[in-house]
Amino acid sequence: MTTLKDRPNTALLVIDMQNDVVRGAYARDGVIENINTLIARARAGEVPVVWVQHSSDTLPEGSEGWRYVSELRRLGSEPLVAKRYGDAFEATDLETVLAGLGVGRLVVAGAETDACIHSTICGAFVRGYDVTLVSDAHTAQDKTQWGAPPVPQVIDYMNLCWSFQAAPGRTARVIKTGEVTFGE
């Protein structure tokens, strides 16, 4: 139901599953397993997999911490979007990449739930995309020392909030990895 004209396709967006971003992240291995399941399903259905990779002063491009975790393998034909802000659309070519693929619907997985996942799904939604958040395929590091709730509560809260997101002509959904089908 996207508001983007002539954009009937779906893409899987894999956000910031980088070594330093998910080092010690909650349920890291299970999230990676779920993302691998999503990637395999997307590829089997010829659905584009678009990778997003963050860099910053503390996560310098080319460093070991900046690299994607070794358990996830990007194919050379799959787009890679470099970003420096939470919202993967800000100051990147993500919109151009998605437009070129005819994508109006996104299935989102990755890290971190309370930062780049949150910013990107909101950014996509206000730009007219239908956005599905995969409830068991996103994670974050513990930020309780700065007053945040424990990560399981952060994830549950994000899933809850996104399940009630609404706007004219767009859909927001939260579903588990096992329920994701591409090309709907």
What does the model show?
This protein has 184 residues and is of the alpha/beta class. It is 30% helix and 22% strand. Strands 3-2-1-4-5-6 form a six-stranded parallel sheet, sandwiched between helices. Helix 4 links the parallel strand 4 (103-111) and strand 5. It is globular and about 45 Å long. 41% of the residues are buried. The model has no long low-confidence stretch (mean pLDDT 97).
Describe the secondary structure blueprint for this structure:
Blueprint: E1 9-15, H1 19-22, H2 28-44, E2 49-54, E3 80-83, H3 94-100, E4 103-111, H4 113-126, E5 130-139, H5 151-163, E6 172-175
Parallel strand pairs: 1-2, 1-4, 2-3, 4-5, 5-6
Helix-and-strand structural type: alpha/beta
Oligomer: single chain
Shape: globular
What portion of residues belong to β-strands? 15-25%
How large is the count of helical segments?
5
What series of H and E elements makes up the topology?
EHHEEHEHEHE
Average residue-wise pLDDT: 97
Low-confidence stretches: none
Radius of gyration, in Å, reads 15 Å
- Largest sheet composition: 6 strands, parallel
- What is the terminal-to-terminal distance? 11 Å
How do the strands of the widest beta sheet line up side by side?
3-2-1-4-5-6
Number of separate strands? 6
Helix content: 25-40%
Could you give a short description of this structure?
The chain has 184 residues and is of the alpha/beta class. It has helices at residues 19-22, 28-44, 94-100, 113-126, 151-163, and strands spanning 9-15, 49-54, 80-83, 103-111, 130-139, 172-175.
